[in-house]
Amino acid sequence: MINRMSQFFQLETHQTTWRRELMAGLTSFFTCSYILLVNPLILQDAGIPLSAGIIATLAASIAGCLLMALWANAPIILIPGMGINAFFSYTMVQSMGLTPQQGFAVVMISGVISFLVTISSVGLRLLNAVPDSLKHGITAGIGLLLTFIGLQKGGIIQAGSTTVLSIGNLASPVTLSTVIGLIVTIMLVARNMRGGLLSGLFVTTILTLLFEPHTAAGTEALDIKVYWKIFNSSEFGVLKIPFWMATFSMMMIVLFENMGLLSGMLPDIRKFPRAFKVVTLSTIVSGLFGTSPTIASAESASGISEGGRTGIPALVTAVLFALCTFVLPYIHFIPGNAVAPVLIVVGAMMMKSIAAIPLEDFTEWLPAFLIITCIPLTLSIADGLSFGFITYPLVKISVGKWREVSPFLYVAALLFLLNLTAFFLYGH
């Protein structure tokens, strides 16, 4: 059995061992397991019951990791993406007015279109067409958005009476618990402690429940019957303009965010085409299960740094997620502010991408800068991408470097412009 699995995962070809791959899997799991608690709380803001969000997150994560392990044989962990879940809840549902069920349909359709892109030559052409500066800008911009959401959820910042934002009431028990939890989380992560994010979440939870016992995220027990109302409940609002606007935006996020993450993390870039296909298939599965799309998580880098080279880390993570079913009934005791330290620290980690942007070239860093700033300021990944992708060819043309821009990028810029125009005309 072990020999067959060794041959299937090609351990000798990858010059690795079972011990190294298993340790990489354990590391990956403990660095990304926070998603089982964080994602349902964000989906709850879209009106999805906490029980349903928990089960959907677990099911989509297991399915995505198994697909990556068994088909792509890559050490990439697929979990609901931080940032794209915020786009689902706060932009698609709260801002554009879609129902959660219509949101699931958007996820599935965007996944189908993205998969069609990946099985054609367009996928690799897109990878080469998008400049690295924009890819890094996307990662950093999503990181800043997560930090902003975390500061809000923790009560550290709030709407101001005379300004747009002001500092929150730090004497509040909930905010104070968040601040202490954030300090603990930062210290644990700084020491490279495995599971540091998850530990920080539990510390914040305990402090909040001690200081303010009535702040738990919900009181309903985990009920599988609630989930069955969400599973495969997509509503295809094909005649609604906001529906197709959201579909286009979701598709662009799925394609470009995963493109940047995979190209930056895969130890063997030859696995990119198959891993890219897996990500889009997992997006379709996510909509079926009732959650925002799974993505190639940035936390995969922790397992890769431990020596993960095959699909075994993804397989180990899937198995451990399955074992988490025994603790699911207790997750509803987690208060909403407990996710704040995780969001803030994960956002900070993603901001490291700024270092790879060529700041000496105005035509490269300005579009990336617009993506980084407009994503959090508009509370929309799609709008942030629009400003950056539209600006990039404009500044290149203005300095006579229009030949440096791929035809694919000109097309993408035009599509983003049309999407932005449609949103101003029909999105309000």
Q: How many separate domains make up the residues?
A: 1
Please report which band the strand proportion falls in: under 5%, 5-15%, 15-25%, 25-35%, 35-45% or over 45%: under 5%
Residue-averaged pLDDT: 86
Gap between N and C termini: 58 Å
Q: Give the helix tally.
A: 19
Cα-based radius of gyration, to the nearest Å: 21 Å
Q: Structural class of the helix and strand makeup?
A: mainly alpha
**Main beta sheet, described?**
2 strands, antiparallel
| Strand segment count | 4
The unreliable regions are: none
Shape: globular
Helix percentage: 55-70%
Reading the helices and strands in chain order gives HHHHEHHHHEEHHHHHEHHHHHH
In order across it, which strands form the biggest sheet? 1-4
